[in-house]
Amino acid sequence: MLDSGQIRDAEAAITRLIYTYCHRLDGADLEGAAHLFEHARWQLSPDVICRGAAEHLDALQVIRVYGDRLGTRHVVSNLLIDVAEDGLSATSVSYVNSIQVTPEFPLQLIFQGRYLDEFAHVDGSWQFQDRIVDADGVGDMSAHHKPAAGIWNDAS
Fold it and tell me: At the topology level of CATH, where does 4-138 sit?
């Protein structure tokens, strides 16, 4: 059984992992974002399910990149983490809102939903095992996805 300090350390490491994904994605480091899912399943929608970094990176290729960024901010909040008593696994749920602005696209909320995550503690570090992106609100994705992306509402 973990003591309170070990639980806090696990929660901090998992929080950092979740935030690292957002920073890499928003900074157009698609390879770095995908790498975090090297040993994980990632479900963006019922039709888009990826396993491993290579499939995740392929799925991210629908995203429009503007120089060195996407013009987005993936804002994660209301994060709840539950670490298993043995310290080898954890789950979390959080809200995610994606806000985007580009030179041709005014600042607006383009996505809201939840991240439902599972983690494993392997070789001394936490890693993603599974992520379900549970969308409950999708706005204008035309500046975010390339045409005919096939995810939520296609860009035109």
Answer: Nuclear Transport Factor 2; Chain: A, (3.10.450)
